[in-house]
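Entry 14. Structure prediction run on the chain below.
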Amino acid sequence: MSVAVKSWKGAITVLKKIVFLIVVCVSSMLWANASFAQSPIASGNSAYPPLHLNVSGHLSEQVRHGEYLVKMADCFTCHTNEADGGKAFAGGLKINTPFGSLYASNITPDKATGIGQWSDQQFVRAVREGIAPDGSYYYPVMPYNYYNKMSVQDVLDIKAYLDAIPAVRKQNHRQALKWPFNYRFLQFGWRLLFFDFNKGAYKVNASHSKAWNRGKFIVEGPGHCALCHTKLNYFGVPIKRYLLAGNFIEDYYAPNITSKGLKLLTDEDVANIFRHNEMPTHSKLGGPMRDVEHNSLRYLSKADTLGIGHYLKSIQSESPPIEVDINHAFTQADGRKLYQSNCEMCHGNHVMGAPSINQRVWDILQGQGLNKLYEVAIRGDGNMPAKGGCDICANGRVKAAVDYMIFLSKLKQPAKVSGAAVN
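Output returned:
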């Protein structure tokens, strides 16, 4: 065989490897963008199961610590199919992506369908490294790269808790992803690019306080706050310079929770939001955050919630660019989601002078002209900041929220029954 032919065949082999690597990375990129965009919304009726401490084989202190970490990490929301009456941690929640559907797994101690047969080592590897007992890779919808900041003992305590809850015999639903995303090995490309295999448990920064370090551990570890509150790059990875400076999650607005977004709040104010669902406006949380508070944050200690607030208020980040809405038609659904996650806290409760959702009120507002109403919402007026504080919102999205509030006000008009008005 001539040298030229050998060189040609060698070049073809190298080219094939390059193409394969590109396919792996692109597939991982697309999946990451799809999965990280998911934020399952629970029904708001979370009921953590009773504990069977006498049969778990673990010390009660270990189980209780594991329970606390499970709540901190909000495992309940994804691994419980509340909408369909599913049992706690038995899996089955459907997560839709552009590439098919993914179903959360059963993590109860059932030996046939749950994790009852898993060894401690297998569980630690799954949670901290995203590798299943059979060696396959988990899709990054399971935020193992955040859970990696927990220590091995933390994760073992979580397993101790899960060993102590009732076992539920429920077969895991087969994943329904389209080709080629149904091949788990494609996650190798994403892991190679973005998972730090040498990064271990969170290390205390001695130059900061205990409260700051605890807050950083929760926010950047089990709390995985950046997945919703930080703009992602094309690979589904949070962009560091925009850390926690606001983002859209399934078209709901996750606000800026850095020093800029929380500048008027004390650590205590932030803690009250998490522990009591009490906004500074005396309204309730909206959108997916409502369920994060209900299933997770309200269970944290006051010290931990104060630590979160203390850490968040120390973060200095750039604001992400305003979203582009050229040739994009925002729908009523887009307006509804922005209203629920950002506008309702004031307009739904008539606080800080915000016009309430009442037909007469909004008829009067429209009397100035719809375009004028849009302009006021976009530029801000009185106590309302520009775009209601959603500084990354496209003008079209703000207009859609205004349209939705007008629509909602018409539904709120008094109904007449036998000549009497009934509110």
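Residues 11-44, 415-423 have pLDDT under 50 and may be disordered.
Filed with the rest of this week's runs.
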